[in-house]
Amino acid sequence: MITRVKGTQDFLDVTLFNFIIQHATQQAELYQFKEIILPILEYTDLFQRSLGTETDVVNKEMFYIKTREEDESICLRPEATASIARAFIENGVDQLPWRVFTCGPMFRYERPQKGRYRQFNQISFEIIGAQSILHDVELIAMLDRLFTERIGINSHALLINFLGCAEDRAKYKELLYNYLKKNHFEELCPQCKERLEKNVMRVFDCKNAQCQLLFRKAPKITDHLCQPCAAEWEQVKEQLDFLSISYSHQDTLVRGLDYYSKTVFEFTSSHLGAQNAFCAGGRYDHLVAMLGGKTDQPAVGAALGIERLMLILEQIKDTLTMPQQKAIQVIIPVAKEQQPLALLIADELRANDMGVEVLLEGSIKSMMRKANKLGAAHALLIGEQEQQDKIITIKNMITGTEEKVAQANLVTHLKK
Ligand code: ATP
Ligand code: MG
């Protein structure tokens, strides 16, 4: 048997998947985000330049595509922000702010486990040309309202941190480097020792409990912000309070990608276990220039992991207001001779926006059982007599009553 590729999933029931997309799309509309669709294939260079070569995503998790051109390096996109910034530059978008969202699969060569796959789906929201720090709060508010009010989950927490500007980070990196190197070098795990030398703030990505314990006492970036950044950080917190959005400040939150500056955030859930973040984002003021844009373009964005949100929703499915399923009509032609007529009648009902299934196999008894199983509102029986008299026998599957109706009146009758 040929199996699916490791770390991928088959979705045989897309109810929850679509539920999430539908609510996110409606929310995006309210907040004036326009949907775009971007390619899954991108040049590897796009992510190397933007995410940083020392990040796990670029270092270990990329899926490369083997093409016929030897000097061509293409990959399956691991995330959407860099692609959106590329599309912004390449298409010469000049209407600012550019508020867009996109849904689709991402690929990362990770160790598959619950909530962590090699192919997974994200919904990304981005605002490019977002100078004011209040854009960050509005984006966070949109997501918080999406989860709390629209979808209806209550097990989540919002973690935020503020990474300052490039100068703040340069100074802070030195401070952190010296602190860890002088006081705790021997206690760090081998990978953190390496991160320390290559890209010191990446140590915070470490999943090792002992390292995380050390980092708690390390200098905090929010204590070392320049005056304008410190004011913006205050503004973020005040505006979140003003909108009654609860959050906690987590000073080791740096996010796994190098392009972030200033605000970073994550939504986590106690329903998720180890992979507990289901949505994350932040500000990236220099990404557009890094990718070759003419000028820096202040921007902020977030990505929602659909599979992780699905894991949360599966546990609270009964409390969700799912869209009502359309009533279905099941047509049962008694013999082969009535099958063409059955399809003709089905055609007419569907043209009138009714959900119809025509049963073409099995005995009458088994077809009736099937209709029951499908949750049909009515079984519409067409035998020889019905065909001759141009009528139909309608069995109400809830009350069990039967009546005969002229085929010409069927639509009006069912719509009653
Ligand atoms: P993690 O710390 O769990 O590895 P991340 O920081 O790498 O997450 P992001 O790049 O911020 O994740 O992606 C945003 C969201 O996409 C995450 O919060 C998560 O919900 C989802 N996500 C990321 N990687 C995976 C994966 N391998 N499988 C499923 N969902 C994922
Ligand atoms: Mg990751």
Please give a handful of descriptors for the protein shown:
Rossmann fold; 5-stranded mixed β-sheet; binds adenosine-5'-triphosphate; BirA Bifunctional Protein, domain 2; binds magnesium ion; 416 residues; 8-stranded mixed β-sheet; alpha+beta
Can you walk through the features of this model?
By secondary structure, this protein is α+β, with helices and mostly antiparallel strands. It has 2 domains: 15-165 and 226-319, BirA Bifunctional Protein, domain 2, CATH 3.30.930.10; 328-415, 3-Layer(aba) Sandwich (Rossmann fold), CATH 3.40.50. It is built from 15 helices and 16 strands. Helix 1 (15-30) crosses helix 5, helix 1 (15-30) crosses helix 11 and helix 5 runs parallel beside helix 9. Adenosine-5'-triphosphate (ATP) is lined by residues 79, 108, 110, 115-117, 120, 122, 256, 275, 277-280, 303, 305, 307-308.
